[in-house]
Design goal:
alpha/beta; 234 residues; elongated; 19% strand; single chain
Amino acid sequence: MLALFLTFCYGVTTITFSIGLDKLWDHVERMWLIQFIVWFPVLVLLCFMAISFFKPEAFYAPSDFKDESNFMRLFDDSRSMTTEEVNDKLTQESISIIAHTETVKEEVNQLVEKAKAADDFMIRLLSEKYDVDFKRNQRLGNRVEVDAIGRRQHTVFFVEVKYMPTLSEARIREAAKRFVDRLSKVITPSPWTRLILAVAYDDGNPNDLTACKDYLHRAYPSLTLVVEKLNTDS
């Protein structure tokens, strides 16, 4: 925000300087404008340094803290704390935020690895089930990409793989809708096209998906739902 403010001020000053310079009566009025351009950033820098030294907590927002109650305590305590104590407290909070961020990154990386394992597992399972050699990550047109495409005689199979830690009927319905809507932009349904939504999961009971399968069969007749528990050892 500070950089945007400075840029805005300089932009306005430069435009004023270029347009109105010839309208200033003498060198004294021009000198005031030049003095502003020279000393204004110096003044802003000095104010910024003063705030950084005496009130460093002013640069933090509640959302920057893992626990927003620490933000309120920081301002309550800062009235009786020295600058060194405030900086130490901010440093400890920063370390806590970094540690939390690393934990989140680790969890995201684990999910990515699980999704890749689910892709490999389900494509291998579908290859054996339908006796089809699938090609991975195929692009249709300029914008549509599917996880796999395979052909057996005159039938073409389009596969979308989804990994779900816990089976969710709502997520399956949403994934099916997006898959069908996406492919409808580039292919025309026919008896020789087959869409397969393959769901790999860790927890849940596939027997509870009877209503979901009935709905998908009615809404998307060309779509086949395949649900299997993820087994990375096979």
